[in-house]
Design brief:
Number of domains: 3
CATH superfamily of the largest domain: P-loop containing nucleotide triphosphate hydrolases
Structural class: alpha/beta
Oligomer: single chain
CATH topology of the largest domain: Rossmann fold
Shape: globular
Distance between the termini: 13 Å
CATH class of the largest domain: Alpha Beta
Largest sheet: 12 strands, mixed
CATH architecture of the largest domain: 3-Layer(aba) Sandwich
Length: about 550
């Protein structure tokens, strides 16, 4: 089979204005970024049409390092629904350069279920990530400048809470010292970098409902604590207008197309292990304005992405998904059944059975939110018929949930028709229940963490470091305890230990630190050893990315 990039190049793309026309998006509402990409005006959102659309979330079991294929399933489902004559639009996140040049090599789907043009989407795209990085670091520069010039007036911050960001995996920048050298270089102080998908500006862009809301949230960003124990914000710095200007174009969702010419919105890119893991509210609502069925995904496993999709994005945006699709693979289940990475392609029905505990726990969690759940089985060439049938029987007979095989990677929309039909039938037969949340707004921060840790992750206890305890006290003092929580932890386990596969029973959930995202209006809870600036692997994908005869190679 051809590589992803070869398949992408083999497809004759439609002009983006024609994609917009076919979708019903008026031309005056789009701004072309070349022939095949456009920005769409968020003012086109029609809340009445949003309420009538069928929103579908795609999530997954706990992933392997090779992934599970959520994006491919999300795009494939949109293609399959289109084959059934439904008006379906997929709404995804933008890829980050960090994992693109690190482990993944790309994140625009795969095979014959991609969003195009894949090279541009995987690289600089419309510059949204660069705008977010620039806006974030502009605040850093302006804050340092303010502190430098105001020190003679006796002003200072006893605690600076704002770090810098970069969309590159660079472990050397996690902790740094700035202002070294002569006094004209600024104040000498400790700082550090997170990756751009973890930036509060990224979260703000993805949660803002319009430009006015974007500015309001930027004004509320907490930068530090003054010498007299007062919060110091971007509004106090007086630069919210300038930062909004930098983000003005990035706020508009991006319209592209699928491998079969359907509309796709790709906008925003927070990671789900260190941020809230969902594409922008504006892109989702635009898709729901113009689509009968809208498919979106949330990053990594359901314990991370799906929980945050419900508890943060849906809670704040008033969204009500009709159904959730959980993606599983035989290799992923066997990994959770104790098989080592180099043996996952070998037939092993007993390990597969042992791995059922992982998907079972995820499905129970999803159902606890009031969701109807169906399973999409991503089939690989190494999977045996016996293994596939074993998973089918377990899902349908023992769990009582719908099951369909997804072959969109190899067959495009035709390979996802069964999944699409299952989704349509499930939505039609079972009235969607009101969305339930894992915790209430009025719960204390400790109660929110405990409810997610014990009910979703199956922890037996929650412990806090001294640093986390101090941040809890600060959260209560600042009056932001009503914010939803965004837990940052490893994506490879229910626990904080990336090697604790399957289901993590009777484990301690340790909270190391907390970050107040006062503009994004959420509290980031950092658990275990998770880092908000990833490092590169021993053999980064950058070693395989090149340009030859004018064509990019190595993006997969």
């Amino acid at each position: 089979m051809k590589s992803d990039i070869e398949i992408a190049r083999s497809i004759e793309l439609k002009r983006i204005k024609h994609v917009a026309d076919e979708t019903g998006i008026p031309r005056e509402g789009i701004e072309n970024y070349g022939r095949y990409i456009a920005k769409v005006d968020g003012n086109l959102i029609d809340e009445n049409r949003v309420k009538q659309s069928n929103l579908i979330l795609v999530t997954a079991i706990t992933p392997t390092k090779a992934g599970i294929g959520k994006t491919t399933v999300s795009i494939g489902l949109a293609l399959g629904l289109k084959k059934l004559g439904k008006k379906a639009i997929v709404a995804l996140r933008e890829p980050s350069l960090g994992p693109c040049f690190g482990m993944k090599g790309g994140a625009a789907g795969g095979g014959y279920a991609q969003v195009l043009p894949m090279e541009k989407i995987n690289l600089h795209f419309t510059g949204d990530f660069h705008a977010i990085t620039s806006a974030h670091n502009m605040i850093s520069a302006l804050l340092d400048n303010y502190l430098y010039h105001q020190q003679e007036n006796g002003f200072g911050l006893k605690e600076i809470l704002w770090r810098r960001v970069l969309d590159v995996n660079d472990r050397s920048l996690r902790y740094i010292v700035t202002g070294l050298g002569p006094k004209s270089n600024g104040l000498t102080q400790e700082s550090g970098f997170d990756i751009t998908p973890a930036s509060e500006i990224m979260a703000i862009l993805c949660l803002a409902k319009d430009e006015a809301d974007l500015r309001r949230r930027i004004e509320n960003i907490l930068l530090g604590i003054t010498l007299d124990d007062k919060p110091f914000t971007v509004k106090d710095l007086g630069v919210a207008g300038a930062i909004t200007v930098l983000l003005k174009d990035a706020l508009h969702p991006n319209l592209v197309q699928t491998t079969e010419g359907g509309a796709a919105f790709v906008h925003g890119g927070p990671f789900a292990n260190i941020a809230h893991g969902c594409n922008s509210v504006l892109a989702t609502k635009l898709a729901m304005t113009f689509g009968e069925y809208v498919i979106t995904e949330a990053g990594f496993g359901a314990d991370l992405g799906a929980e945050k999709f419900y508890d943060i994005k849906c809670r704040k945006a008033g969204l009500q998904p009709k159904l959730t699709v959980i993606v599983a693979t035989a290799q992923g289940l066997k990994m959770h059944g104790g098989v080592k990475a180099d043996a996952l392609k070998e037939p092993d029905t007993e390990a597969l059975k042992r791995g059922f505990g992982n998907i079972d726990k995820h499905i129970r969690n999803l159902q606890s939110f009031g969701q109807t759940v169906v399973v999409a089985f991503n089939r690989y060439a190494s999977d045996t018929d016996e293994e596939v049938e074993l998973v089918r029987l377990h899902c349908e007979k023992e769990l009582g949930v719908g099951f369909a095989i997804n072959n969109a990677f190899a067959e495009g929309g035709a390979g996802a028709v069964d999944l699409a039909q299952l989704v349509v039938d499930s939505i039609g037969k079972i009235p969607s229940a009101p969305l339930r949340y894992a915790y209430n707004d009025e719960d204390t921060v400790e109660e929110k963490i405990e409810k997610v840790a014990t009910n979703i992750y199956k922890a037996s206890m929650v412990t806090y470091s001294t640093t986390a305890r101090k941040m809890l006290k600060k959260i209560h003092q600042l009056g932001v305890a009503h914010f939803p929580i965004c837990i940052a932890k490893t994506q490879y386990s229910f626990s904080t230990d990336p090697k604790m596969y399957g289901v993590a029973d009777d484990m301690e959930f340790h909270v190391r630190d907390m970050v107040i995202n006062r503009g994004a209006e959420m509290l980031v809870v950092i658990a275990g050893d998770i880092l908000r600036m990833p490092g590169l692997p021993k053999e980064p994908q950058a070693l395989h990315i090149d340009i030859q005869n004018g064509q990019i190679e190595g993006l997969s």
